[in-house]
Amino acid sequence: MEFPCRFAIKVIGNATDGFEQQVAAIVARHVDEDCIHEIAKRASSAGKYQSVTVTIEAHSRAQLDEVYAELTATPEILMAL
Questions:
Q1: Which of 31, 34, 65, 73 has the most C-beta neighbours closer than 10 Å?
Q2: Spatial separation of the C-alpha atoms in residues 4 and 57, rounded to whole Å
Q3: Closest CA to 67 of 51, 56, 52
């Protein structure tokens, strides 16, 4: 992987109010605001879960590791891909 590059982070959790904002806030702690290109959300077919995909401009492997570490340590987040 060559940096900087666009990188999509997909996060899955229970469908709750504020989940998208929580994910965006975590990513924003590690990525400059102008490096967040897109945030998309999608509900599961039954509506129990939702996914949030944040596309960023990643600058290093260490930066991605920090984002994933915080995401996976958050109890409301079931999975980060």
A1: 31
A2: 6
A3: 56
